[in-house]
Amino acid sequence: MAFQIPEYHHPDFSEERFLKAPDARWEVVEMDGVAPEYFHSTSMFPEYFKIQGKWVLAEESRMDSSVVISAVSIVCIVIMCRASKEIHGKIIKNS
Predict the structure, then answer these.
(1) Which of 88, 93, 95 lies closest to 29 in space, CA to CA?
(2) Which residue in 7, 18, 66, 72 is a FRET match for 49, CA 20 to 30 A apart?
(3) What pTM was estimated for this model as a whole?
(4) Residue 56 CA neighbour count, 13 Å, CB half
(5) 87 confidence band (pLDDT: 50, 70, 90)
């Protein structure tokens, strides 16, 4: 029998725990290549972030990176050493 990756099912965001969850906190990047204190480091699993009341799936899953809200993409993943205040703007922080 060949290995088969299980089908992914997103969470039911109509559940009360998701509806009552606060929006993600973010902070503007102040120095190129430096994350704000308590920034959120990503995992290899799909990650959603509540932004202005809407749950958004990060565009990719990558371990040990930062989540950035930018004008180009609502939630993109960047390796912190590549983050810059000119290209990216707001990094998601741990609550």
Answers:
(1) 88
(2) 7
(3) 0.72
(4) 20
(5) very low
For residues 31-66, one letter each, b for 16 or more C-beta atoms within 10 angstroms of the residue's C-beta and e for the rest, the string is eeeebbeebbebeeeebbbebeeeebebeeeeeebb
What is the rounded distance in angstroms from the CA atom of residue 18 to the CA atom of residue 53? 10
Q: How far is CA 73 from the centre of its chain?
A: 11
Q: Report the distance separating Cα 85 and Cα 7, nearest Å.
A: 37
pLDDT in tens, 23-34: 988 887 777 777
**Sole residue written with tokens 């749950």:** 55
Q: Which string of DSSP letters, residue by residue, matches 2-51?
A: ---PPPP----TTSHHHHSSPPPEEEE--STT-PPTTBPBP-SS--EEEE
